[in-house]
Write a structure and sequence with these properties.
The chain is mainly alpha-helical. It contains 4 helices and no strands.
Amino acid sequence: MIALKRSVLGARSDMTKDQISVPVQPADLKREIAHEIYQALEKLDASPELLGVIGSWSDGEGDDVVLKNLRAWNRDGSIFTKVICRSDRPA
């Protein structure tokens, strides 16, 4: 099952299990987890909005804000409550 997931996500075939390192510091670990989630979502053609939520988490956005945005995304399909400007219509 792991091999299947790696091939689906396009994992690096040149990396062996022994070469996968994990950061020791919690902040580094969180940043690395967010980065890996971002890469996986990007390979799955996730919405730029969802990628932005995960990207902001890896850049240091608070867990509470990221969780709020993820819950809004899962509930509504967007983190925005209203659209203030649309690119498909003249201003």
